[in-house]
Amino acid sequence: EADAGEYTCDTGDQQTTAAVLVKALPVLFKHWLKNEEVEEGCTAMLHCELTKPSAPVEWRKGDTVLQPSDKYEIRQEGTRVELFIYDAEAQDA
Predict the structure, then answer these.
(1) Which of 9, 25, 56, 87 qualifies as a FRET site for 17, CA 20 to 30 Å off?
(2) Could you give the count of Cα atoms lying within 13 Å of 61 in the half-sphere of its Cβ?
(3) Cβ-proximal residues to 14 (8 Å cutoff; 6+ apart), any chain
């Protein structure tokens, strides 16, 4: 999108101008989440991979949006997105 705009080729005597439009591709999943089974008190880790690096994502449990805390750690490096659930308890299922 930063490359969109008008470009001009100028010879000094003449010039020609064209517009460039960049269509953003949707963010898709390359690797989907997989079910995770973890023992009580341990750490569960969920991860997926996207088609675009640094795309904005939101982690949810049911309808609740998860925020980073002592319980949840959210990491995103390039196209890989991870959620760590620390000290897993029965209500984390």
Answers:
(1) 25
(2) 11
(3) none
Domain count, the chain: 1
Q: Is 83 exposed, middle or buried (0-12, 13-18, 19+ CB in 10 A)?
A: buried
- Indicate whether 6 belongs to any domain: no
Long-range contact list for 25-32, CB < 8 A, 24+ apart? 25/51, 25/52, 27/51, 27/52, 27/55, 30/79
Domain of 59? 29-85
pLDDT tens figures, 2-32: 899 999 999 999 999 999 999 988 999 999 9
Phi, psi dihedral angles at 86 (to 5 degrees): -85, 150
